[in-house]
Amino acid sequence: MNIIVCAKQVIDVSEMKVDANTKKPILQGVPQKISDIDKNAMEEAIKIKDKHGGKITVLTIGPADAKERIKEILAMGADEGILVTAPDNIDYFMTATLLAEAIKKIGEYDMILCGEASIDLFSGQIGPRLAGLLNIPQITYALNVTAEKDKVTAERNMGDMAVTTEATYPALITVTKEINEPRLPSLMQILGAANKPINEWTADSLKSGLKPLVETVELKGVSMERKNIVYQNDIDESIGKLVDSLAKEGVIGR
Amino acid sequence: MVLVYSDNKKITIEILSKASEIAKEQKKKVTAVIIGKPDENLAKEYISYGAEEVFIAETELESFKSEEYSDILASIVKETGTETILIGSNKNGKELSARLGGKLNAGCVVDSNNIYIKNNKLMAERVVYSGNAIAVEQFNSTPAIITVPSKAFDSLKKDDSRKGEITKKKIESEKSKSKILKAHEMKSEGTNVEDAEIIVSCGRGFKDKGDIKLVQELADILKGKTVGCSRPLAADLKWLSEEHWIGLSGHKVKPKLYIAAGISGQIQHIAGMRDSGIIVAINKDPEALIFRSADYGIVGDLYEVLPKLTDAVKAKMG
């Protein structure tokens, strides 16, 4: 089974600071990591490889420093990494196009695994876009995956509905965070990852002249103006004050 | 042409109002799309809510598959020269939109609650970075696809005198290589946090599943009767079903009163409840992040605070 795992380097949103005056997020200097749910996709790939054998290739579109992050995925168990270096102002159309071109260059594959969405922007576009470009079946929001020799089945969380879908290969699957617990690589695995190959391809070598169809022209701050009145002394007194305040606000009462 | 599609009638009706506004500015028509059986009553209802045309794509397909539905929509978009496509942002709608974007090489913005035209460009805003920023996205090409969550826009007033054209057409799609083996409704208890006016939520601070009754009792007294929870309780411990899960990947809520007990206040949770009217936090850790997002907070053990608060509210409400 040849599996391709798509992984994105993102900023660690929990470490992100907000400018006190403008309320705009400060993106410079925030630590980078592999988007959490992409690690769930990787964990699932390892389980499938354990069962059927084969090869796991991790594919990333991003800046040159994403190479360090790819090593984390190699340490988890991927056999090979591919980094497509791309400009900053890349949109989903460009990312999906580059992924599709890279996958065509890789050649044979049975399964593509992605996270349901990246934790920074949470659009969830890449999986379905890529499946559309490659014209292969897509199984989204998988809660579990059963890979057999000639077909794959998954139970999916579709919000109001639980849907079980089956597809032949090649197929693209996006996984949820609930599907598994990604493993932490051992020290030996981390050291071993240094010897695994990471190929670097440029975006232009795959498809030249790509321009974004959608541009982020501004990132606005969100004001979360809250009263922040915290009672921390005597509990009975605190509750009394709270209930009075809520009544004054008109949210409780007869 | 501004095209509107969702498999959810309520969202379609809400989007029609925004679509009418955009169409007016672009001097285009609003077309609602129905995929499946030719339901003329539904088509007439869409017209009464602002659709100037309803396109019924008749298919033999038994259930939704984004591979096939995106094929059908792509044909309609090409045939009608549609420039703007607005799709309901449930999970079906999102995976459909993105695949359609891939097929048509079209730009797509998901989960937008603010759509407008500026300098002749279509703009869509969406919340990013777990609710810490709003990205203003500008479309540089057509067709443009935007998905719209429920309740983002108010529907137009129903007006049965509105006139519109109904077009019926059989549309073939490429047969998908995927197969739906089973589908059943997840909603079992009928809890709907998204419509609740008052929500009392619980998180990791609860030691035992049975203790959730403390939250339930307060919710009952508040007539909200709705219990929410943070991710660990629904996704990891499974003490409550996903209907109760509030957060970035759970439900997004905006009640007039939100009480968070034993919830630390991770940004993913905040992203789901930040639009609430009044937010109250109960946590024993005075440093807990939740207090920063709260209007009122009590530092204390929820096992002591909740029963007392329930009694105090009961007394106040008489």
How does this structure look, described?
The complex is a heterodimer of chains A (254) and B (318). With 254 residues, chain A is an alpha/beta fold. Chain A has 2 domains: 2-206, HUPs (Rossmann fold), CATH 3.40.50.620; 224-254, no CATH class. Helices cover 31% and strands 32% of the residues of chain A. In chain A, the strands form 3 sheets. In chain A, strands 11-10-9-12-8-1-6-7-13 form a 9-stranded mixed beta sheet, sandwiched between helices. Chain A has a two-stranded antiparallel ribbon with strand order 2-5. A two-stranded antiparallel sheet of chain A has the order 3-4. The longest helix of chain A is centred in the N-terminal third of the chain and has 17 residues, at 36-52. The radius of gyration of chain A is 22 Å and the shape is globular. Chain B is an alpha/beta fold and 318 residues long. Chain B has 2 domains: 2-170, 3-Layer(aba) Sandwich (Rossmann fold); 193-317, Rossmann fold. Chain B has 8 helices and 16 strands. Chain B has helices spanning 9-26, 40-48, 66-80, 91-104, 213-221, 231-236, 267-273, 302-317, and strands at 2-5, 30-36, 53-58, 84-88, 107-109, 112-118, 121-128, 133-139, 144-148, 165-170, 178-185, 198-202, 226-229, 257-261, 278-283, 296-299. In chain B, the strands form 3 sheets. Chain B has a 7-stranded parallel beta sheet with strand order 5-9-4-1-2-3-10, sandwiched between helices. In chain B, helix 5 runs parallel beside helix 8. The chains are: A alpha/beta (254), B alpha/beta (318).
